[in-house]
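Our preliminary data section would be incomplete without showing what the modeling component actually yields. Below, a chain of 140 amino acids is followed by its predicted structure, encoded as tokens that our downstream tools consume directly.
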Amino acid sequence: MKPAWSKKLRGDLQMHTRWSDGSGTIAEMADAAKARSYSYIAITDHSKGLKIAGGINERILRKQGTEIAKVNNARSKLGGKLTVLRSVELNLNSRGEGDMSPASLSPLDPVLGSFHSSQRTIEDQTDRYLAAVAIPTFKF
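Predicted structure:
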């Protein structure tokens, strides 16, 4: 990596916390981002379909949203310029469908979609990817 390039980064849009398979809290992730002079980060813990990574369900996603709001409020009161975005790494099935209800995704900022299965097939995957991009709750 070129050192000059990394100094131009303003955020990180994929971060996992203790809510799934990461090791830090949301506040710790925000502190680390502030130390890097980031303007934003997105918390993208795994969704429920990826049980091996401790994927979270809709109820837990709401609880996590409350924690993110608290971190943002605390940072704002201290004059912080970092925004923690609510997101999730949505597990997509072989048809490109997500594993969480659209209603649970609508309050999120970006929604990442990831295929964690059927990746080594030699069959054409175009339809699968197009179906995923067409999910109305995805925000790019």
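The chain has five helices and five strands. Helices lie at 3-6, 26-35, 58-77, 102-105, 126-133. Preliminary results of this kind motivate Aim 1 of the renewal.
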